[in-house]
Design brief:
The complex is a heterodimer. Chain A is built from 3 helices and 8 strands. Chain A is α/β, with parallel strands linked by helices. Chain A folds into 2 domains: 68 residues, 2,3-Dihydroxybiphenyl 1,2-Dioxygenase, domain 1 (Roll); 80 residues, 2,3-Dihydroxybiphenyl 1,2-Dioxygenase, domain 1. In chain A, the strands form 2 sheets. A 4-stranded mixed β-sheet of chain A has the order 1-4-3-2, with helices on one face. A 4-stranded mixed β-sheet of chain A has the order 5-8-7-6, covered by helices on one side. The two termini of chain A are 26 Å apart. Chain B has a single domain, classed as Roll (2,3-Dihydroxybiphenyl 1,2-Dioxygenase, domain 1), CATH 3.10.180.10. The chains are: A alpha/beta, B alpha+beta. At the A-B interface, helix 1, helix 2 and strand 4 of A face helix 4 of B.
């Protein structure tokens, strides 16, 4: 067995926690689970400034960047600012997701078709307000539950 | 600006500040100070309800400042708690001369709201209440000072924001501590490049950023709410402080908002629905400066009052 088993959570740095809350909760439907450094006790204990969100079964912390981060070009919607976070939706909800982003005025690229012999069906690519690259996709193997990751072609 | 896209509880109908009650070890001595420095005059009429031994001063716009006797006063020097009065430029210059004559130090640091970053004018009254004077255009030199804004501290600013928005229906118009730009300003403060009001910044050597583990200065989160053309500031307390008893609803110091009778009714409904403890409505004596009040304790233990204008029961 590998020493690391599954991804527990990740951290995303942003320039504005309120803006991020409105994006992750208001647009993507995440649920705010906690906030740190908005209580006197936290500040006295020297805790960092972040909020925690759950999106489906995925937990992530949105941390306030203490310095301004380089922003990708405005028109670049697909890429990675160090990392790209990809979320899964059921194929049946994929069109609804696109409508939701469109309705919220979030520019995105796609849908992009993936190879038919791979695990992924289609993806759309976009950014959060702080320039973090995000992706939402549906999986061809969504009916089989937690599927083993197939061998992926290399080279 | 209000937060974009936020869901708002309907406006309760708070039209502004009605009166502010601050504590004084000797109300008569304090009244003399406020009269000498700012030209406040003692308001005629009966004693102000629910203030104990107190002196009532007449502010502009029919507002009042009440100096209530208290034997044990908290040290507010390093907190964000303060009272701001609006007056003319000329009246503020006159106040500066009177303060100088009394040997009271004037401080000129800035605050975070965009219209308060420069032109700061702060001093402490004889009991350590921080007073800010905001010079307003189109104001007569001999007009009594108005209640411009007031600020309280809380230990849980998210809970406080929920209370003020969802129950009292106030709209946040400015917040500090949620974005990187504010932290850049905190760094400027730590570097000695910006002089900011006590209670708004913190330098804690135990604190390091989650991002790069660098020890760094912080802003103390603050939210400002609009109430009419006045404001309520809520600061995260930068140290533990003694809150009022949890089961108390009325006391001093206290901030009172002006509402009309239908709004007072709505407020009771909203408080009841939220299972939030309150007392009242208290019907005041005929001739009292306010007619009906309800008394509430906010999540930081600050006493809040919603009051209708006097005269309803005369």
């Amino acid at each position: 067995m590998a020493q690391a088993e599954t991804l527990s959570h990740s951290g995303i740095c942003v320039h504005d926690l309120k803006e991020a809350q409105e994006f992750y909760c208001g647009v993507l439907g995440a649920e705010l689970k906690g906030a740190v450094n908005f209580f006197t006790e936290d500040t006295l204990n020297g805790r960092s400034v972040h909020q925690s969100y759950a999106l489906g079964d995925y937990l992530f912390a949105v941390a306030l960047a203490p310095d301004f981060m380089p922003m990708p070009p405005v028109d670049q919607l697909r890429g990675a600012m160090g990392v790209r976070h990809a979320f899964t939706v059921a194929k049946a909800r994929f069109d609804h997701t696109i409508e939701s982003l469109t309705g919220s005025g979030v520019p995105f690229e796609g849908p992009v078709d993936h190879p038919e012999n791979g695990p992924f069906g289609q993806s759309i690519y976009f950014k959060d307000p702080s320039g973090n690259f995000l992706e939402i996709l549906w999986r061809r193997d969504e009916d089989v539950g937690t599927a083993p990751i197939p061998d992926l072609e290399t080279g | 600006m209000p937060d974009a896209g936020a869901t708002r509880t309907p406006d309760l109908g708070i039209v502004g500040l009605s009166h502010i009650v601050i504590e004084a070890s000797d109300p008569d001595r304090s009244a003399a100070f406020y009269s000498d420095v700012l030209g406040f005059e003692t308001a005629p009429g009966p004693a102000w309800p629910q203030c104990g031994t107190a002196v009532t001063l007449a502010a502009g716009r029919g507002q009042n400042l009440i100096l209530a006797a208290a034997s044990k006063l908290p040290d507010l020097h390093e907190t964000g708690v303060h009272q701001a009065f609006g007056l003319s430029h000329g009246a503020r210059e006159k106040a500066a001369l009177r303060l100088k004559a009394q040997g009271v130090e004037i401080e000129t640091y800035g605050e975070d709201p965009p219209d308060e970053t420069t032109g700061g004018f702060y001093f402490f009254d004889p009991d350590g209440n921080r007073i800010q004077l905001v010079a307003l255009p189109d104001t007569e030199d001999d007009a009594p000072p108005t209640l411009h804004h007031t600020a309280v501290q809380v230990a849980d600013i998210l809970w406080a924001e929920q209370f003020y928005t969802e129950i009292l229906g106030l709209v946040p118009v400015h917040r500090v501590g949620w974005n990187t730009a504010d932290y850049a300003r905190a760094q400027a403060w730590a570097d000695g490049k910006e002089d900011m009001a006590p209670g708004t910044r913190r330098l804690d050597k135990r604190y390091s950023s989650m991002v790069n583990a660098r020890v760094m200065p912080r802003v103390n989160p603050q939210v400002y709410f609009a109430c009419g053309d006045q404001r309520l500031g809520v600061f995260l307390a930068n140290s533990h402080f003694q809150e009022s008893p949890e089961d108390a609803c009325r006391g001093t110091p206290r901030i009172a908002f002006r509402v009309d009778p239908p709004s007072l009714e709505r407020a009771q409904g909203r408080l009841t629905e939220a299972s939030w403890r309150f007392e009242g409505p208290v019907v005041h004596e005929p001739g009292a400066p306010v007619s009906d009040s309800i008394y509430i304790r906010d999540p930081g233990g600050n006493f809040i009052e919603l009051a209708t204008a006097g005269g309803a029961h005369s």
